[in-house]
Amino acid sequence: RYFFTYLLPHSAPLTLRPFLSNILNATGDLRYGINETLKAFEEVLHLYKSGLYLQERPLLLKDYVSLKGFRVVEGEDYKCWPSYSHLGCLLSVHSAEEAAAICNSQSQCQSFIVTEQRTWTGRPLALFQSSLTDLIPDANAVVYIKRSASSGERL
């Protein structure tokens, strides 16, 4: 009950919450049995893994400078919920474009990197940072820096 009521709907992307609420209500009202609940969750998981849940919105990645061949040093930074790290803001994303939208929605965020780490669904984790310091060489990485942040700092 706790999983259905509190954890699942509140840590899901906004556009998936109505689907999860429907599953919650249908299961609670006994309209869904085990098989219907499983099928509904599989449909939500498909939307989540494929990125089909993402709403049409303006492309935000153009507002970022990409710095190839570098990554940020992972350390303590601002925290967000539901982060995969207790040291900072590490979130699951579908793409760099979704990461840019998340970074834009957080006032502290100045840069992000889409890491090589994956969730159990295969989605990459993005690390969001409030500062542009401590960049280290990494041939396989790309740091995305807000244009407004990069104009005031030396790269």
UniProtKB/TrEMBL annotation:
GO molecular function, one term: non-membrane spanning protein tyrosine kinase activity
Gene Ontology biological process terms from the UniProt entry: skeletal system development
Keyword Kinase tagged: yes
This protein's UniProt keywords: Kinase, Transferase
InterPro entries xrefs: PKDCC
GO cellular component: extracellular region
Keyword Transferase: yes
Name of the protein described by the UniProt record: PKDCC kinase
Organism: Todus mexicanus
Gene name of this polypeptide: Pkdcc_1
